[in-house]
Structure formats: C-alpha cells, structure tokens
Write a structure and sequence with these properties.
Blueprint: H1 3-11, E1 21-25, E2 37-42, H2 47-57, E3 64-66, E4 73-75, E5 80-85, E6 94-97, E7 100-104, H3 109-118, E8 121-122, H4 134-139, E9 143-144, E10 147-148, E11 153-160, E12 164-168, H5 170-173, H6 182-185, E13 188-195, E14 197-198, H7 201-218, E15 225-226, H8 238-244, E16 251-252, E17 255-257, E18 265-267, H9 276-291, E19 300-302
Parallel strand pairs: 2-5, 3-5, 4-19
Antiparallel strand pairs: 1-2, 6-7, 7-13, 8-14, 9-10, 11-12, 11-13, 15-18, 16-17, 17-18
Amino acid sequence: MSPCRLLLERLCAKPFLVPPVLDQPLAPLTSLKAGAKAGLFVQPSNEGELEYLFAALLPLDLPWFLVGKGSNLVCRDQDFPGVLVQLTGEFGRLSQNQRELQAGAGTVDAKVARFARQCGLGGAEWLVTVPGSLGGAVAMNAGAYGQDIAGMFAGGRAFDPAKGFVDLSPEDLAFGYRSSRLQKTGEILLSARLALTPKEPEVIRQLELEYLKKRRLTQPTGIKTFGSIFKNPPGTSAWKLIDQAGLRGRQIGSFRISPVHANFMENLGQGEAKGLIELIETVQSEVQAQTGVKLDLEGKLFPPEP
C-alpha cells in the first residue's frame, strides 16, 4: 500500500468535514490552471483536524506542501508524491476588534478588503487587487501600490508541525521584500490580526475602484495567468528588464510572457505544464545575458526541488 493510501486510511478514523482526495489534479487548484497530480489532498477545517493530520502524517515521513489559492504556484510537469494541504472551514473566518481585523489564513484577500470596508477601516484597500489567500499574502509579504502586509500585520497564530500551536508577533515574522520567516520554518499560519485606521466606507470604495481600474489597464485579465512571476531587483522593475531583453510576448508551448505586462505569464493551453519551466529559464538566461541581472522567482516551484 502506498504511503498516501496508508495515511488516508488513518485519517478515515476521524472523518474530516471535507473528505481527503487521492491523486488530486493540480490544475484546478492554481491560477495558471496547469500542473500534474498530488498524491493526497487534505483540507483541514479546524485546528483539531490540522493537528490530527500531522500526528498521522509525520510518522510516515511523507513530504507535504501548503497551498492557498494557488496564485503563486509555478507547477512543474511532474506528480507530487506527498500531501497537499489547504486550509478551509474555520480558517476562513473574519471578525473585528475595534481597529483590528482578525482574519483566517484561508480567507481570500479581496474578501478581507471588503470586510475592512464594511467595518469602516482603511489600509487594506490594495488587497482587493491581490489574488490568493491571506496566509500566502503574509508568508510572502505581498504588496501593491506602495503598501505591504508588514505595514499592517499586528500578530498571528500558527501551527508548527513539530511543536504545536504558536503565537507570532510582527518581529517574529522578520518581514523582508516579498519574504517572511514562514517561508523557511515550515510553520503554517492559521490567522492574522491586521491593524487598520478608521475611514469612511465610501472613501475606501473609491480607492478600491481606482486600484481595480489600474489593474485592468496594466495587467492581463480574463485569461489563465500568474501574478508577478519574478521579484523586482533592487533599483529597477523585472518587467523593464524583460522588455529590455525583447521578451514581451515570447511563447514556449502553451505559455507566454503577457503582451500586456511583461512580468506576467499566461497559459493558453488546457492544463499541461509543459513549456512553463523552459520559458522561465529562458527569460532568466536572456535577461542576465543582456543586462547582467539575475531574476529570482516570486512564486514557488511545485513540486519543490529536493
């Protein structure tokens, strides 16, 4: 019996609210709609299920990977033999405590922005343009329009598979440009507190509409796409370097560099990831050859390299 099937049997001893799935296709779970399969897909709905999952998983020495809404996954064309974990249920809750929002890590970023507006709290308007879930946004210190998560993160709760539940301060997360300690420690963010400021909902809505208009004018919409594929190097923008190298619109297989924004990638195919990694490596190689700058991925390679 495969390790994933053995784990599934163990999980059936405590039925999950959302049943685990063997051989889960990756394409429906990513914004690029591409990828192979994961051995087992598990969606814990509460802290009890999450703790039970890892108590059963760790002794089997199975690899695992946390996925949010898949908006920053760069999927290879190969299967993942381990467990894909996605938070759902209680991890999508939202609440207000005076000038702070408490948001579950599984909450969609745009939903966080809308809830903040309903509460008359400003500072999260930019999240309306960010694809993905709050957990991913915190882990990578997402940002847009001169703002980022680090500027409003007031604390959070996480799960360390080896140690249990932990509380996190802003200092604990050691935020950097598109980075935090969560990218290195294996901790799973469960919820975050966001410190915001009172603002009229009508004013907030106007800002949201302004940001959304800018997004429609400068980024591809209505197509299977990945947000910023590369991090901006110090002192410049990745899209400028890609343009300088003459790569806007370059296509390999079903994937191309967006004609609308050179730091976005589009999938013109039907689910296969063939050509994706080759296109990324081509851009990195040609940009470095022509400009001397090495572009680093902003997203996560999946399955991760050994």
